[in-house]
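STRUCTURE:
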């Protein structure tokens, strides 16, 4: 499916595992300012808080970036929604949407197991998925500006109301992380604004957690996009990562043909030097 040219996102490696001492809020700010000057359309940061993935906080850092930029989209890839209180997340993002004049994008997901077990919470994906659904509903309702009361399995809200709503209407876009070939995350995402999908083949010869690969990178990305498109009206956002180890040279063109609205460059930054990272960003997004 041919569409208009997709936007180019840059993943800012805010995790010390990848950038070491270069993973600082100050460096992320300079990288983002350089990205906007070089023609990138968005910057995305991880949201992890556990020993195997020590990352600087994305939303605080993106708030700083908002004050130094004017056009670039600010998002996460992805925020473990259940790790945060939904009303606080709704409030924080509405504030950032005002600070950035409507440039926020929420990449949402369950996140990795360590986000929970590190802090004494049980890792039960099915139970977390129900909690996730409740949290998204509360966030969405709070963003309307109406008084919200809610009595669910996990959350209780009595007459809560945000002091102001997001700039963007009807809400800040919510894109959900989806893991192929699981169908439920894609079905959930059909109720929101888009997907940030992944599949076992994206990590090479074996899935991230040993899952069976159902085809080549091209076959898996085609299957997941076509499945998702069958659930939607075709206007939603689709963010696809570009630099996948096993992807063919023409993978970006395949993503465009499938209707990707975002192409994410995820491996541009390194731990060699801050100056070299800035220089790589300044070269601009891939053609």
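SEQUENCE:
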């Amino acid at each position: 499916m041919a569409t208009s040219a997709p936007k180019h996102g840059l993943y800012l490696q805010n995790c010390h595992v990848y950038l070491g001492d270069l993973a600082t809020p100050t460096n992320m700010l300079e990288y983002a300012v350089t990205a906007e000057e070089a023609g990138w359309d968005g910057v995305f940061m991880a949201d992890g808080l556990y020993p195997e993935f020590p990352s600087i906080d994305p939303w605080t850092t993106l708030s700083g970036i908002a004050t130094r930029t004017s056009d670039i989209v600010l998002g996460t890839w992805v925020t473990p929604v259940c790790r945060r209180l939904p009303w606080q997340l709704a409030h924080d993002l509405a504030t950032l949407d005002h600070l950035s004049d409507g440039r926020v994008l929420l990449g949402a997901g369950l996140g990795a197991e360590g986000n929970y077990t590190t802090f004494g919470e049980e890792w039960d994906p099915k139970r977390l998925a129900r909690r996730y659904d409740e949290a998204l509903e509360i966030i969405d309702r709070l963003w309307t500006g109406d008084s919200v009361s809610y009595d669910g399995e996990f959350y209780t809200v009595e007459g809560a109301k945000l002091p102001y709503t997001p700039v963007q209407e009807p809400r800040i876009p919510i894109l959900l992380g989806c893991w192929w070939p699981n169908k439920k995350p894609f079905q959930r995402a059909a109720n929101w604004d888009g997907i940030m999908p992944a599949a076992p083949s994206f990590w090479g010869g074996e899935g991230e957690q040993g899952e069976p690969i159902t085809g080549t990178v091209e076959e898996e990305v085609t299957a997941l996009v076509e499945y998702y498109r069958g659930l939607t009206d075709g206007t939603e956002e689709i963010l696809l990562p570009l630099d996948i180890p096993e992807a063919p040279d023409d993978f970006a063109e395949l993503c465009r043909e499938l209707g990707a609205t975002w192409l994410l460059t995820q491996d541009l930054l390194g731990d060699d030097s801050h100056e070299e990272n800035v220089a790589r960003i300044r070269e601009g997004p891939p053609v």
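REMARK: Residues 70 and 100 are 7 Å apart (CA to CA).
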